[in-house]
């Protein structure tokens, strides 16, 4: 490392200096309104409108913490491979 301290970032509010467990802001619900707002901001950005920092942070937020995505994908892939093992076995004589 280059000797600089890493900045901790909250997944809840995208703030710096604390983690989600210590966050005092309420979690933002991920409902239809959340997706509509995100789509409107993306359209505005594509049209060349200048967005402020908060709007850019909202657009950059995938809505799912990185670790949660990995935890969901790996078990599903493993289950698929186990259940359909014979399907991909070219030497299967059944």
| Net shape | extended
Query: Share of helix among residues?
Result: 40-55%
How many DSSP H or I helices? 3
Quickly give the structural class: mainly alpha
Q: Count every beta strand, where a strand is a DSSP E run of 2 or more residues.
A: 0
Order of helices and strands: HHH
Question: Kindly state the mean pLDDT as a whole number?
Answer: 70
Biggest sheet statistics: none
User: How many domains make up the 3D coordinates?
Assistant: 1
Portion of residues in beta strands equals under 5%
User: Unreliable runs, pLDDT <50, ≥5 residues?
Assistant: 66-73
Cα-to-Cα separation, first versus last residue: 55 Å
Give me the Rg, rounded.
21 Å
Write the layout of secondary structure elements.
Blueprint: H1 32-46, H2 53-60, H3 66-83
Structure description:
The chain has 94 residues and is an all-alpha fold. It has one domain (20-85). The protein has three helices and no strands. The protein has helices spanning 32-46, 53-60, 66-83. The longest helix has 18 residues, at 66-83. It is extended. Mean pLDDT is 70; it is low at 66-73.
Features:
mainly alpha, 94 residues
Give a quick summary of the entry.
By secondary structure, the chain is mostly helical.
